[in-house]
Write a structure and sequence with these properties.
The structure holds two protein chains of two kinds.
Chain A: H1 2-46, H2 52-62, H3 67-80, H4 86-100, H5 105-117, H6 123-170
Helix pairs in contact in A: 1-2, 1-6, 2-3, 3-4, 4-5, 5-6
Chain B: H1 3-6, H2 11-17, H3 21-24, E1 28-34, E2 40-43, E3 46-51, E4 55-57, H4 68-78, H5 87-92, E5 94-97, E6 101-112, E7 115-128, H6 141-144, E8 145-146, E9 151-152, E10 155-159, H7 165-178, E11 199-203, E12 224-228, H8 232-243, E13 247-250, H9 256-267, E14 271-277, H10 281-285, H11 288-295, E15 301-306, E16 314-319, E17 324-327, H12 348-359
Parallel strand pairs in B: 10-14, 10-15, 11-12, 11-13, 13-14
Antiparallel strand pairs in B: 1-2, 1-7, 2-3, 3-4, 5-6, 6-7, 8-9, 15-16, 16-17
Helix pairs in contact in B: 8-9, 9-11
The chains are: A mainly alpha, B alpha/beta.
Amino acid sequence: MKLLGAALVLLAATLFGFFQALQFARRPRQIRELISALQRLETEIVYGSTPLPEALRRLSAAAAEPVGPLLGGVAAALAQRPQTPLGELWREEAERVWKRSAMKEPEFEAFTRLGLALGLSDRTDQAKHLKLAAAQLKAEEQTAREEQKRYETMWRSLGVLVGALIVILMY
Amino acid sequence: MPEAILSYMPDSLQRILRPVWPALAEQLEEIRVRENRPLELRLSGGSRFVAPGGVLTGRPNEAYMPTRSDCAAVLELLTNHSAYSYEEELRLGYITIPGGHRVGLAGRAVLEGGRVRLQRDVGSYNFRIARQVVGVAKPFVPSLLDIGAATLHHTLIVSPPQHGKTTFARDLARIVSAGEWPPGAWGNGPAASRPGLKVGVVDERSELAACVQGAPRFDLGPRTDVLDGCPKAEGMMMLIRSMSPEVLVADELGRPEDAAAVREAIHAGIRVAATAHGNDLDDVRRRPALRELLGEGAFRRIVTLRRKPGEPLQGAVWDEQGRRLFATSGWAGGLSAGAGYRPAAATAQNGDERKGASAR
Protein backbone atom coordinates (compact mmCIF):
# COMPACT_ATOMS: atom_id res chain seq x y z
CA MET A 1 0.00 0.00 0.00
CA LYS A 2 2.74 2.39 0.98
CA LEU A 3 4.61 1.40 -2.15
CA LEU A 4 1.65 2.31 -4.34
CA GLY A 5 1.37 5.72 -2.67
CA ALA A 6 5.05 6.34 -3.16
CA ALA A 7 4.77 5.42 -6.84
CA LEU A 8 1.84 7.84 -7.27
CA VAL A 9 3.74 10.70 -5.63
CA LEU A 10 6.76 10.02 -7.80
CA LEU A 11 4.62 9.88 -10.96
CA ALA A 12 2.80 13.10 -10.13
CA ALA A 13 5.99 14.97 -9.43
CA THR A 14 7.59 13.69 -12.62
CA LEU A 15 4.59 14.72 -14.72
CA PHE A 16 4.55 18.15 -13.10
CA GLY A 17 8.22 18.56 -13.93
CA PHE A 18 7.67 17.52 -17.53
CA PHE A 19 4.72 19.90 -17.86
CA GLN A 20 6.80 22.83 -16.61
CA ALA A 21 9.57 21.88 -19.03
CA LEU A 22 7.06 21.73 -21.87
CA GLN A 23 5.84 25.25 -21.08
CA PHE A 24 9.40 26.52 -21.40
CA ALA A 25 9.75 24.74 -24.72
CA ARG A 26 6.43 26.07 -26.05
CA ARG A 27 6.84 29.73 -25.18
CA PRO A 28 9.45 30.70 -27.81
CA ARG A 29 7.57 28.72 -30.45
CA GLN A 30 4.30 30.52 -29.74
CA ILE A 31 6.00 33.90 -29.73
CA ARG A 32 7.59 33.01 -33.08
CA GLU A 33 4.13 32.17 -34.43
CA LEU A 34 2.77 35.49 -33.16
CA ILE A 35 5.60 37.44 -34.80
CA SER A 36 5.07 35.83 -38.18
CA ALA A 37 1.31 36.50 -37.94
CA LEU A 38 2.04 40.19 -37.27
CA GLN A 39 4.39 40.28 -40.25
CA ARG A 40 1.64 38.86 -42.46
CA LEU A 41 -0.76 41.42 -41.02
CA GLU A 42 1.68 44.15 -42.00
CA THR A 43 1.69 42.89 -45.57
CA GLU A 44 -2.10 42.82 -45.64
CA ILE A 45 -2.28 46.38 -44.32
CA VAL A 46 0.57 48.03 -46.18
CA TYR A 47 0.30 46.37 -49.58
CA GLY A 48 -3.29 45.15 -49.63
CA SER A 49 -5.07 47.89 -47.65
CA THR A 50 -7.24 44.99 -46.55
CA PRO A 51 -9.83 46.06 -43.97
CA LEU A 52 -8.89 44.73 -40.56
CA PRO A 53 -11.78 42.29 -39.99
CA GLU A 54 -11.09 40.66 -43.35
CA ALA A 55 -7.31 40.58 -42.77
CA LEU A 56 -7.75 38.99 -39.33
CA ARG A 57 -10.05 36.30 -40.73
CA ARG A 58 -7.51 35.45 -43.41
CA LEU A 59 -4.62 35.31 -40.95
CA SER A 60 -6.49 33.20 -38.43
CA ALA A 61 -7.06 30.53 -41.05
CA ALA A 62 -3.33 30.37 -41.77
CA ALA A 63 -1.86 30.59 -38.25
CA ALA A 64 -1.38 27.73 -35.78
CA GLU A 65 -2.57 27.42 -32.15
CA PRO A 66 -2.86 29.66 -30.20
CA VAL A 67 -2.42 32.58 -32.64
CA GLY A 68 -5.05 31.37 -35.13
CA PRO A 69 -7.88 31.20 -32.58
CA LEU A 70 -6.68 34.47 -31.05
CA LEU A 71 -6.98 36.48 -34.28
CA GLY A 72 -10.12 34.58 -35.30
CA GLY A 73 -11.61 35.46 -31.95
CA VAL A 74 -10.92 39.16 -32.50
CA ALA A 75 -12.49 39.00 -35.96
CA ALA A 76 -15.58 37.27 -34.57
CA ALA A 77 -15.88 39.79 -31.73
CA LEU A 78 -15.60 42.66 -34.25
CA ALA A 79 -18.44 41.22 -36.29
CA GLN A 80 -20.58 40.77 -33.20
CA ARG A 81 -19.89 44.04 -31.41
CA PRO A 82 -18.74 46.56 -34.01
CA GLN A 83 -19.57 49.43 -31.64
CA THR A 84 -16.78 48.44 -29.24
CA PRO A 85 -13.33 49.91 -29.88
CA LEU A 86 -10.93 47.41 -31.38
CA GLY A 87 -8.39 47.92 -28.59
CA GLU A 88 -10.90 46.65 -26.05
CA LEU A 89 -11.88 43.53 -27.99
CA TRP A 90 -8.23 42.88 -28.75
CA ARG A 91 -7.38 42.91 -25.04
CA GLU A 92 -10.34 40.73 -24.06
CA GLU A 93 -9.42 38.07 -26.58
CA ALA A 94 -5.76 38.24 -25.57
CA GLU A 95 -6.67 37.74 -21.91
CA ARG A 96 -8.73 34.69 -22.80
CA VAL A 97 -6.03 33.12 -24.96
CA TRP A 98 -3.02 33.98 -22.78
CA LYS A 99 -4.47 31.95 -19.89
CA ARG A 100 -4.33 28.81 -21.99
CA SER A 101 -1.01 29.52 -23.70
CA ALA A 102 2.62 29.25 -22.64
CA MET A 103 3.16 32.96 -23.26
CA LYS A 104 3.75 35.33 -20.39
CA GLU A 105 3.17 38.91 -19.27
CA PRO A 106 5.74 40.80 -21.44
CA GLU A 107 4.34 39.34 -24.69
CA PHE A 108 0.85 40.18 -23.49
CA GLU A 109 1.86 43.79 -22.91
CA ALA A 110 3.44 44.15 -26.34
CA PHE A 111 0.46 42.55 -28.03
CA THR A 112 -2.24 44.59 -26.27
CA ARG A 113 -0.32 47.81 -26.81
CA LEU A 114 -0.45 47.10 -30.53
CA GLY A 115 -4.22 46.66 -30.26
CA LEU A 116 -4.61 50.23 -29.06
CA ALA A 117 -3.06 51.59 -32.26
CA LEU A 118 -4.24 49.10 -34.84
CA GLY A 119 -6.57 50.41 -37.51
CA LEU A 120 -6.46 53.98 -36.25
CA SER A 121 -3.90 55.55 -38.58
CA ASP A 122 -2.50 55.49 -42.09
CA ARG A 123 -0.45 52.68 -43.57
CA THR A 124 3.01 54.08 -42.79
CA ASP A 125 2.06 54.55 -39.18
CA GLN A 126 0.48 51.13 -38.95
CA ALA A 127 3.63 49.56 -40.35
CA LYS A 128 5.64 51.32 -37.64
CA HIS A 129 3.41 50.04 -34.87
CA LEU A 130 3.52 46.51 -36.24
CA LYS A 131 7.30 46.62 -36.59
CA LEU A 132 7.66 47.90 -33.07
CA ALA A 133 5.46 45.15 -31.67
CA ALA A 134 7.37 42.54 -33.68
CA ALA A 135 10.69 43.88 -32.38
CA GLN A 136 9.48 43.72 -28.79
CA LEU A 137 8.21 40.19 -29.32
CA LYS A 138 11.56 39.20 -30.85
CA ALA A 139 13.36 40.37 -27.72
CA GLU A 140 10.94 38.32 -25.63
CA GLU A 141 11.51 35.35 -27.89
CA GLN A 142 15.22 35.67 -27.24
CA THR A 143 14.80 35.65 -23.45
CA ALA A 144 12.30 32.82 -23.76
CA ARG A 145 14.89 30.77 -25.63
CA GLU A 146 17.53 31.42 -23.00
CA GLU A 147 15.11 30.46 -20.27
CA GLN A 148 14.22 27.35 -22.22
CA LYS A 149 17.88 26.35 -22.39
CA ARG A 150 18.36 27.01 -18.73
CA TYR A 151 15.20 25.61 -17.21
CA GLU A 152 13.79 23.01 -19.56
CA THR A 153 16.14 20.16 -18.60
CA MET A 154 16.27 21.44 -15.06
CA TRP A 155 12.51 21.06 -14.60
CA ARG A 156 12.48 17.69 -16.27
CA SER A 157 14.93 16.22 -13.73
CA LEU A 158 13.75 18.41 -10.86
CA GLY A 159 10.29 16.80 -10.99
CA VAL A 160 11.65 13.29 -10.54
CA LEU A 161 14.11 14.40 -7.88
CA VAL A 162 11.54 16.28 -5.81
CA GLY A 163 9.20 13.28 -6.10
CA ALA A 164 11.97 11.03 -4.88
CA LEU A 165 12.74 13.41 -2.01
CA ILE A 166 9.12 13.41 -0.82
CA VAL A 167 9.04 9.61 -1.01
CA ILE A 168 12.23 9.35 1.03
CA LEU A 169 10.98 11.81 3.61
CA MET A 170 7.68 9.94 3.94
CA TYR A 171 9.39 6.64 4.54
CA MET B 1 -33.84 55.05 -44.59
CA PRO B 2 -31.50 57.21 -42.46
CA GLU B 3 -31.67 54.39 -39.89
CA ALA B 4 -28.42 53.10 -41.39
CA ILE B 5 -26.67 56.22 -40.09
CA LEU B 6 -27.24 55.21 -36.48
CA SER B 7 -25.15 52.09 -36.96
CA TYR B 8 -22.14 54.41 -37.41
CA MET B 9 -22.63 55.88 -33.95
CA PRO B 10 -21.22 54.42 -30.75
CA ASP B 11 -23.71 53.14 -28.16
CA SER B 12 -23.53 56.35 -26.13
CA LEU B 13 -24.72 58.48 -29.07
CA GLN B 14 -27.24 55.89 -30.24
CA ARG B 15 -28.90 55.95 -26.83
CA ILE B 16 -29.37 59.70 -27.13
CA LEU B 17 -30.44 59.80 -30.76
CA ARG B 18 -32.75 56.81 -30.88
CA PRO B 19 -35.65 58.42 -28.94
CA VAL B 20 -35.75 61.47 -31.24
CA TRP B 21 -35.15 59.49 -34.41
CA PRO B 22 -38.68 58.45 -35.48
CA ALA B 23 -40.10 61.94 -35.09
CA LEU B 24 -37.25 63.67 -36.91
CA ALA B 25 -36.22 61.19 -39.58
CA GLU B 26 -38.13 63.07 -42.27
CA GLN B 27 -36.80 66.56 -41.61
CA LEU B 28 -33.27 65.68 -40.57
CA GLU B 29 -30.60 67.22 -42.79
CA GLU B 30 -27.39 66.98 -40.79
CA ILE B 31 -26.13 65.48 -37.57
CA ARG B 32 -23.12 67.36 -36.21
CA VAL B 33 -20.91 65.48 -33.80
CA ARG B 34 -18.18 67.69 -32.36
CA GLU B 35 -15.81 66.70 -29.62
CA ASN B 36 -16.66 68.36 -26.29
CA ARG B 37 -19.19 70.59 -27.98
CA PRO B 38 -22.97 70.24 -28.04
CA LEU B 39 -24.48 67.47 -30.18
CA GLU B 40 -26.43 69.29 -32.88
CA LEU B 41 -29.14 68.31 -35.32
CA ARG B 42 -29.82 70.44 -38.39
CA LEU B 43 -33.45 70.08 -39.33
CA SER B 44 -35.22 71.54 -42.31
CA GLY B 45 -36.73 73.98 -39.79
CA GLY B 46 -33.47 75.03 -38.16
CA SER B 47 -30.94 73.87 -35.61
CA ARG B 48 -31.57 71.94 -32.40
CA PHE B 49 -29.27 70.51 -29.75
CA VAL B 50 -29.86 67.14 -28.14
CA ALA B 51 -29.72 66.71 -24.38
CA PRO B 52 -28.97 63.36 -22.71
CA GLY B 53 -32.05 61.15 -22.78
CA GLY B 54 -32.97 62.35 -26.25
CA VAL B 55 -34.56 65.70 -25.41
CA LEU B 56 -34.37 68.43 -28.02
CA THR B 57 -33.33 71.81 -26.74
CA GLY B 58 -32.41 75.19 -28.08
CA ARG B 59 -29.83 75.81 -25.37
CA PRO B 60 -26.34 74.54 -26.11
CA ASN B 61 -25.30 74.29 -22.46
CA GLU B 62 -27.95 71.62 -21.77
CA ALA B 63 -26.87 69.48 -24.67
CA TYR B 64 -24.88 66.28 -24.60
CA MET B 65 -21.19 66.79 -25.36
CA PRO B 66 -19.70 63.94 -27.35
CA THR B 67 -16.49 62.78 -25.66
CA ARG B 68 -13.13 62.10 -27.19
CA SER B 69 -13.80 58.37 -27.13
CA ASP B 70 -17.20 58.93 -28.81
CA CYS B 71 -15.44 60.70 -31.67
CA ALA B 72 -12.74 58.04 -31.91
CA ALA B 73 -15.43 55.36 -32.02
CA VAL B 74 -17.26 57.13 -34.85
CA LEU B 75 -14.09 57.14 -36.93
CA GLU B 76 -13.50 53.47 -36.20
CA LEU B 77 -17.01 52.62 -37.29
CA LEU B 78 -16.85 54.77 -40.41
CA THR B 79 -13.57 53.18 -41.50
CA ASN B 80 -14.51 49.65 -40.44
CA HIS B 81 -11.68 49.68 -37.87
CA SER B 82 -9.23 50.23 -40.73
CA ALA B 83 -8.38 53.91 -41.15
CA TYR B 84 -5.48 52.90 -43.38
CA SER B 85 -7.84 51.65 -46.08
CA TYR B 86 -9.55 55.06 -46.15
CA GLU B 87 -6.46 57.21 -46.65
CA GLU B 88 -7.85 58.93 -49.73
CA GLU B 89 -11.14 59.69 -48.01
CA LEU B 90 -9.31 61.03 -44.96
CA ARG B 91 -7.29 63.28 -47.25
CA LEU B 92 -10.36 64.63 -49.02
CA GLY B 93 -12.26 64.97 -45.77
CA TYR B 94 -15.35 62.87 -46.28
CA ILE B 95 -16.53 59.29 -46.32
CA THR B 96 -19.60 58.12 -48.22
CA ILE B 97 -21.63 55.47 -46.45
CA PRO B 98 -24.31 53.11 -47.79
CA GLY B 99 -27.51 54.99 -48.50
CA GLY B 100 -25.57 57.75 -50.22
CA HIS B 101 -25.07 59.70 -47.03
CA ARG B 102 -21.90 61.69 -46.79
CA VAL B 103 -19.93 62.16 -43.61
CA GLY B 104 -17.67 65.19 -43.57
CA LEU B 105 -14.61 65.12 -41.30
CA ALA B 106 -12.48 67.84 -39.79
CA GLY B 107 -9.47 67.10 -37.65
CA ARG B 108 -5.77 67.84 -37.71
CA ALA B 109 -4.26 67.76 -41.17
CA VAL B 110 -1.08 65.79 -41.68
CA LEU B 111 1.04 67.48 -44.31
CA GLU B 112 3.55 66.03 -46.68
CA GLY B 113 5.48 68.29 -49.00
CA GLY B 114 3.05 71.11 -48.23
CA ARG B 115 -0.01 69.10 -49.28
CA VAL B 116 -2.56 67.46 -47.06
CA ARG B 117 -1.80 63.78 -46.83
CA LEU B 118 -4.58 62.85 -44.44
CA GLN B 119 -6.38 63.96 -41.31
CA ARG B 120 -6.01 62.60 -37.83
CA ASP B 121 -7.58 63.29 -34.44
CA VAL B 122 -10.88 63.96 -36.14
CA GLY B 123 -12.95 66.12 -33.82
CA SER B 124 -15.88 67.13 -36.03
CA TYR B 125 -18.24 64.96 -38.00
CA ASN B 126 -21.01 66.15 -40.22
CA PHE B 127 -23.45 63.41 -41.18
CA ARG B 128 -25.21 64.84 -44.23
CA ILE B 129 -28.35 62.96 -44.95
CA ALA B 130 -28.88 62.40 -48.63
CA ARG B 131 -32.31 62.06 -50.10
CA GLN B 132 -33.04 61.39 -53.70
CA VAL B 133 -35.88 63.64 -54.74
CA VAL B 134 -37.27 61.83 -57.74
CA GLY B 135 -38.85 64.13 -60.28
CA VAL B 136 -37.38 67.38 -58.97
CA ALA B 137 -35.89 68.28 -62.36
CA LYS B 138 -38.87 67.22 -64.41
CA PRO B 139 -40.58 70.61 -64.80
CA PHE B 140 -37.31 72.06 -66.08
CA VAL B 141 -36.62 69.40 -68.67
CA PRO B 142 -38.69 70.76 -71.59
CA SER B 143 -36.70 74.01 -71.60
CA LEU B 144 -33.41 72.13 -71.51
CA LEU B 145 -34.00 69.99 -74.60
CA ASP B 146 -32.36 70.74 -77.92
CA ILE B 147 -35.22 69.65 -80.15
CA GLY B 148 -33.27 70.01 -83.39
CA ALA B 149 -30.39 67.81 -82.28
CA ALA B 150 -32.65 65.45 -80.35
CA THR B 151 -30.61 65.73 -77.18
CA LEU B 152 -29.99 67.93 -74.16
CA HIS B 153 -28.53 71.44 -74.37
CA HIS B 154 -25.20 72.07 -72.65
CA THR B 155 -26.46 72.97 -69.20
CA LEU B 156 -24.86 74.67 -66.20
CA ILE B 157 -26.66 74.29 -62.90
CA VAL B 158 -25.90 77.09 -60.43
CA SER B 159 -26.90 77.40 -56.80
CA PRO B 160 -25.36 78.06 -53.40
CA PRO B 161 -24.40 74.98 -51.36
CA GLN B 162 -27.33 73.07 -49.85
CA HIS B 163 -29.75 74.52 -52.39
CA GLY B 164 -30.29 71.44 -54.48
CA LYS B 165 -27.69 71.52 -57.27
CA THR B 166 -26.58 67.98 -56.83
CA THR B 167 -30.10 66.70 -56.28
CA PHE B 168 -31.09 68.43 -59.51
CA ALA B 169 -28.16 67.05 -61.50
CA ARG B 170 -28.85 63.57 -60.20
CA ASP B 171 -32.50 63.72 -61.22
CA LEU B 172 -31.64 65.23 -64.59
CA ALA B 173 -29.29 62.31 -65.25
CA ARG B 174 -32.02 59.88 -64.27
CA ILE B 175 -34.67 61.51 -66.47
CA VAL B 176 -32.41 61.73 -69.50
CA SER B 177 -31.16 58.20 -69.04
CA ALA B 178 -34.60 56.69 -68.47
CA GLY B 179 -36.19 58.75 -71.23
CA GLU B 180 -38.80 59.97 -68.76
CA TRP B 181 -39.62 62.98 -70.92
CA PRO B 182 -42.53 65.14 -69.78
CA PRO B 183 -45.50 64.84 -72.14
CA GLY B 184 -45.04 66.97 -75.21
CA ALA B 185 -41.41 67.75 -74.48
CA TRP B 186 -40.41 66.70 -77.96
CA GLY B 187 -43.55 68.06 -79.57
CA ASN B 188 -46.28 65.85 -80.92
CA GLY B 189 -45.22 63.31 -83.44
CA PRO B 190 -43.17 60.17 -83.67
CA ALA B 191 -40.44 61.82 -81.62
CA ALA B 192 -42.73 62.14 -78.60
CA SER B 193 -41.79 58.66 -77.35
CA ARG B 194 -38.05 59.02 -77.75
CA PRO B 195 -35.93 56.56 -75.72
CA GLY B 196 -33.45 57.78 -73.12
CA LEU B 197 -29.90 58.83 -73.91
CA LYS B 198 -26.64 57.24 -72.85
CA VAL B 199 -25.43 59.15 -69.80
CA GLY B 200 -21.94 59.18 -68.35
CA VAL B 201 -21.55 60.50 -64.81
CA VAL B 202 -18.16 61.61 -63.52
CA ASP B 203 -18.72 61.49 -59.80
CA GLU B 204 -15.54 62.97 -58.38
CA ARG B 205 -16.90 63.40 -54.87
CA SER B 206 -19.18 60.34 -54.84
CA GLU B 207 -22.14 62.62 -54.33
CA LEU B 208 -24.16 62.20 -57.49
CA ALA B 209 -24.36 58.44 -57.48
CA ALA B 210 -23.06 57.72 -53.97
CA CYS B 211 -21.28 54.60 -55.11
CA VAL B 212 -20.30 52.05 -52.54
CA GLN B 213 -17.72 49.70 -54.00
CA GLY B 214 -18.60 50.74 -57.53
CA ALA B 215 -22.37 50.32 -57.41
CA PRO B 216 -24.53 53.49 -57.40
CA ARG B 217 -26.82 53.81 -54.40
CA PHE B 218 -29.06 56.32 -56.15
CA ASP B 219 -31.22 55.59 -59.16
CA LEU B 220 -29.48 57.30 -62.06
CA GLY B 221 -31.49 55.61 -64.79
CA PRO B 222 -30.95 52.48 -66.86
CA ARG B 223 -28.53 53.95 -69.41
CA THR B 224 -26.06 55.53 -67.01
CA ASP B 225 -22.42 54.69 -66.44
CA VAL B 226 -20.75 56.09 -63.35
CA LEU B 227 -17.05 56.77 -62.97
CA ASP B 228 -16.68 57.03 -59.24
CA GLY B 229 -14.10 59.09 -57.37
CA CYS B 230 -12.31 60.16 -60.53
CA PRO B 231 -11.03 63.72 -61.07
CA LYS B 232 -13.54 65.43 -63.36
CA ALA B 233 -11.25 66.51 -66.15
CA GLU B 234 -9.57 63.15 -66.52
CA GLY B 235 -12.82 61.30 -65.89
CA MET B 236 -14.69 63.10 -68.65
CA MET B 237 -11.99 62.16 -71.14
CA MET B 238 -11.98 58.57 -69.92
CA LEU B 239 -15.75 58.26 -70.28
CA ILE B 240 -15.71 59.82 -73.75
CA ARG B 241 -13.12 57.31 -74.91
CA SER B 242 -14.49 54.24 -73.19
CA MET B 243 -18.26 54.53 -72.76
CA SER B 244 -19.44 56.69 -75.73
CA PRO B 245 -21.90 58.75 -73.69
CA GLU B 246 -24.38 61.13 -75.33
CA VAL B 247 -24.65 63.27 -72.21
CA LEU B 248 -21.95 63.82 -69.60
CA VAL B 249 -22.94 64.84 -66.08
CA ALA B 250 -20.39 66.22 -63.63
CA ASP B 251 -20.51 67.94 -60.28
CA GLU B 252 -18.90 71.26 -59.34
CA LEU B 253 -16.88 72.62 -62.20
CA GLY B 254 -14.30 75.19 -61.22
CA ARG B 255 -10.73 74.27 -62.00
CA PRO B 256 -9.02 75.29 -65.23
CA GLU B 257 -8.60 71.69 -66.34
CA ASP B 258 -12.34 71.18 -65.91
CA ALA B 259 -12.99 73.91 -68.44
CA ALA B 260 -10.61 72.28 -70.89
CA ALA B 261 -12.35 68.94 -70.46
CA VAL B 262 -15.77 70.51 -71.00
CA ARG B 263 -14.50 72.13 -74.19
CA GLU B 264 -13.10 68.80 -75.33
CA ALA B 265 -16.42 67.07 -74.68
CA ILE B 266 -18.33 69.76 -76.52
CA HIS B 267 -16.07 69.35 -79.53
CA ALA B 268 -16.57 65.60 -79.37
CA GLY B 269 -20.29 66.22 -79.89
CA ILE B 270 -21.24 65.27 -76.37
CA ARG B 271 -23.69 67.31 -74.34
CA VAL B 272 -22.53 68.37 -70.90
CA ALA B 273 -24.61 69.04 -67.80
CA ALA B 274 -22.56 70.31 -64.88
CA THR B 275 -23.06 72.13 -61.60
CA ALA B 276 -21.19 75.08 -60.15
CA HIS B 277 -21.24 76.82 -56.78
CA GLY B 278 -22.54 80.34 -56.77
CA ASN B 279 -25.36 82.61 -55.77
CA ASP B 280 -26.01 83.59 -59.34
CA LEU B 281 -24.20 83.87 -62.61
CA ASP B 282 -22.27 86.92 -61.43
CA ASP B 283 -20.60 84.75 -58.82
CA VAL B 284 -19.86 82.03 -61.31
CA ARG B 285 -18.41 84.50 -63.76
CA ARG B 286 -15.85 85.62 -61.21
CA ARG B 287 -14.22 82.22 -61.35
CA PRO B 288 -11.67 82.28 -64.14
CA ALA B 289 -12.30 78.81 -65.55
CA LEU B 290 -16.04 79.28 -65.76
CA ARG B 291 -15.81 82.84 -67.05
CA GLU B 292 -14.00 81.59 -70.10
CA LEU B 293 -16.54 78.87 -70.76
CA LEU B 294 -19.46 81.24 -70.33
CA GLY B 295 -17.76 83.86 -72.46
CA GLU B 296 -17.47 81.34 -75.24
CA GLY B 297 -21.16 80.57 -74.89
CA ALA B 298 -20.36 76.96 -74.15
CA PHE B 299 -23.41 76.54 -71.98
CA ARG B 300 -26.67 77.08 -73.86
CA ARG B 301 -28.82 76.76 -70.75
CA ILE B 302 -28.24 78.01 -67.22
CA VAL B 303 -30.36 76.70 -64.39
CA THR B 304 -30.41 78.72 -61.18
CA LEU B 305 -31.86 77.07 -58.11
CA ARG B 306 -32.92 78.12 -54.68
CA ARG B 307 -34.58 76.20 -51.90
CA LYS B 308 -36.15 77.41 -48.70
CA PRO B 309 -36.22 74.90 -45.83
CA GLY B 310 -39.31 72.74 -45.99
CA GLU B 311 -40.46 74.07 -49.35
CA PRO B 312 -40.20 72.60 -52.81
CA LEU B 313 -37.25 73.53 -54.98
CA GLN B 314 -37.58 76.79 -56.92
CA GLY B 315 -35.60 77.63 -59.98
CA ALA B 316 -35.38 79.23 -63.39
CA VAL B 317 -33.82 78.39 -66.74
CA TRP B 318 -31.95 81.01 -68.78
CA ASP B 319 -30.45 80.81 -72.23
CA GLU B 320 -26.98 81.99 -73.14
CA GLN B 321 -28.38 85.43 -73.97
CA GLY B 322 -29.67 85.82 -70.42
CA ARG B 323 -33.31 85.41 -71.39
CA ARG B 324 -35.51 83.57 -68.96
CA LEU B 325 -37.08 80.53 -70.60
CA PHE B 326 -38.75 78.97 -67.62
CA ALA B 327 -39.36 79.56 -63.94
CA THR B 328 -41.20 77.64 -61.27
CA SER B 329 -44.36 79.25 -59.94
CA GLY B 330 -42.75 80.25 -56.64
CA TRP B 331 -39.65 81.73 -58.26
CA ALA B 332 -39.16 85.20 -56.79
CA GLY B 333 -36.19 86.10 -58.90
CA GLY B 334 -33.92 86.14 -55.89
CA LEU B 335 -31.16 84.64 -57.94
CA SER B 336 -31.13 86.40 -61.25
CA ALA B 337 -28.97 85.31 -64.12
CA GLY B 338 -26.79 88.24 -63.14
CA ALA B 339 -26.14 91.49 -64.90
CA GLY B 340 -22.63 90.74 -65.97
CA TYR B 341 -23.66 87.81 -68.03
CA ARG B 342 -26.40 89.67 -69.83
CA PRO B 343 -25.37 91.00 -73.20
CA ALA B 344 -26.34 94.55 -74.17
CA ALA B 345 -29.62 93.37 -75.65
CA ALA B 346 -31.03 92.25 -72.34
CA THR B 347 -34.75 91.88 -71.97
CA ALA B 348 -36.83 94.12 -69.80
CA GLN B 349 -38.04 91.08 -67.98
CA ASN B 350 -34.56 90.40 -66.79
CA GLY B 351 -34.25 93.92 -65.48
CA ASP B 352 -37.32 93.36 -63.36
CA GLU B 353 -35.74 90.27 -61.96
CA ARG B 354 -32.80 92.30 -60.77
CA LYS B 355 -34.96 94.90 -59.15
CA GLY B 356 -36.73 92.11 -57.31
CA ALA B 357 -33.42 90.85 -56.11
CA SER B 358 -32.21 94.15 -54.72
CA ALA B 359 -35.53 94.85 -53.01
CA ARG B 360 -35.31 91.68 -50.99
